[in-house]
């Protein structure tokens, strides 16, 4: 009889929860409700027809318990523990656009707009640094990087230390691919730009590629840039892909074309990608989200969108960093090229 009553109570609870709780949260609350209902039934010695049907108090208590659990895990002490300022993950953001002709179909600074927005979003602060930095244009909203305003955003990941690699910064030095990094005997033999890029990528914990879409593919300058660098600088790190275009496709075809390239380099892309359609209308020249109403909703929506990617990138990058720091997870142990790299031998690149 007790088992039957528990089952009836649980089914009644399920019917009530199904209407109010999103699908992904339903099972967690139902489990809590079943436990509550079962405990109530098992501790009751008598059952009368005047007893209230299961569901009212059980639903309220289960929902409060679920909310408290979510708050503790997402926004409580755990978030503060994973956000030490001295242990930020370093994200190398590679910009893909080198176009400088200010003519249709896109304004020339569009790639820099996206790069600035990505940098500010990942670092969770206002002032971008590096080759793509600029003064804030008049009329741009500054709430995006205000720490007091950030609490309203539902951030589940700590900020990254962002290092922007802009091929346009090296435009006078990067040739069409003739000698990749692995064809040199040592870092000292490389051209200055390639040595600088190689060292910066080695120090990174994850890679972020920002690409436009040209003829249904990624930027040729981005692919040329990646192919110059050895795979050992990318290996054992996660990556993320952010694409943009002036059309409603958002560069999705260019993003898909980058997946096998980054996978072959050893930095597997996270599943959550960012596609920015009509990026020229979405972002200002300073990299802020256009907010015509001034209520901050556009900014919050954009941050939630890239937040999916940032969370996955942080999750995998943090795990990879911990593995690299452990004796059994050191990539130099199981990969001969990485092992030769650590010893400084001749053929130390993939």
Helices and strands in order:
Blueprint: H1 2-20, H2 23-42, H3 56-75, H4 77-81, E1 90-95, H5 110-123, H6 147-150, E2 161-165, H7 192-203, E3 206-212, H8 220-228, E4 239-244, H9 252-264, E5 274-276, H10 279-282, H11 297-324, H12 331-334, H13 336-343
Parallel strand pairs: 1-2, 1-3, 3-4, 4-5
Helix pairs in contact: 1-2, 2-3
Summarize the structure.
With 350 residues, this protein is α/β, with parallel strands linked by helices. Helices cover 46% and strands 8% of the residues.
Structural description of this entry:
With 350 residues, the protein is of the alpha/beta class. It has two domains: 1-44, no CATH class; 89-343, Rossmann fold. It is built from 13 helices and five strands. Strands 2-1-3-4-5 form a five-stranded parallel sheet, with helices on both faces. Strand 3 (206-212), helix 8 (220-228) and strand 4 form a beta-alpha-beta unit. Helix 1 packs antiparallel against helix 2 and helix 2 packs across helix 3. The longest helix has 28 residues, at 297-324. The protein is globular, with a radius of gyration of 26 Å. The termini are far apart. Mean pLDDT is 71; it is low at 1-11, 32-55, 70-86, 126-153 and 344-350.
């Amino acid at each position: 009889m007790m088992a039957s009553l528990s089952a009836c109570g649980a089914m009644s609870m399920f019917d009530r929860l199904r209407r109010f709780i999103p699908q992904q949260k339903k099972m967690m609350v139902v489990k809590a409700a079943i436990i509550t209902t079962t405990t109530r039934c098992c501790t009751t010695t008598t059952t009368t027809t005047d007893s209230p049907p299961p569901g009212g108090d059980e639903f309220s208590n289960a929902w409060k318990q679920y909310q408290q659990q979510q708050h503790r895990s997402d926004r409580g002490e755990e978030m503060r523990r994973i956000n030490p300022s001295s242990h930020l993950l370093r994200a190398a953001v590679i910009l893909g656009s080198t176009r400088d002709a200010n003519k249709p179909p896109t304004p020339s600074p569009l790639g820099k707009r996206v790069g600035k927005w990505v940098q500010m979003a990942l670092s969770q602060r206002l002032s971008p640094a590096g080759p793509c930095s600029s003064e804030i244009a008049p009329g741009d909203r500054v709430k995006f990087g205000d720490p007091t305003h950030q609490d309203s955003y539902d951030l589940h990941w700590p900020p990254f230390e962002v290092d922007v690699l802009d091929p346009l910064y090296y435009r006078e030095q990067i040739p069409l691919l003739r000698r990749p990094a692995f064809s040199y005997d040592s870092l000292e033999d490389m051209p200055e730009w390639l040595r600088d890029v190689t060292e910066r990528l080695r120090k990174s914990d994850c890679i972020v590629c920002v690409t436009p879409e040209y003829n249904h593919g990624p930027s040729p300058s981005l692919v040329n840039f990646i192919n110059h660098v050895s795979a050992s600088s990318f290996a054992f790190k996660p990556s993320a892909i952010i694409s943009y275009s002036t059309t409603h496709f958002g560069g999705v075809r260019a993003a898909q074309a980058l997946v096998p390239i980054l996978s072959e380099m050893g930095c597997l892309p996270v599943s959550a990608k960012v596609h920015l359609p009509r990026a020229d209308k979405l972002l200002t020249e300073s990299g802020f989200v256009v907010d015509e109403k001034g209520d901050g909703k556009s900014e919050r929506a954009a941050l939630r969108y890239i937040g999916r990617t940032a969370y996955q990138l942080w999750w995998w990058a943090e795990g990879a960093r911990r593995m690299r720091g452990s004796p059994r997870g050191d990539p130099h142990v199981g990969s001969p090229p990485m092992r030769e790299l650590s010893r400084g031998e001749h053929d130390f690149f993939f």
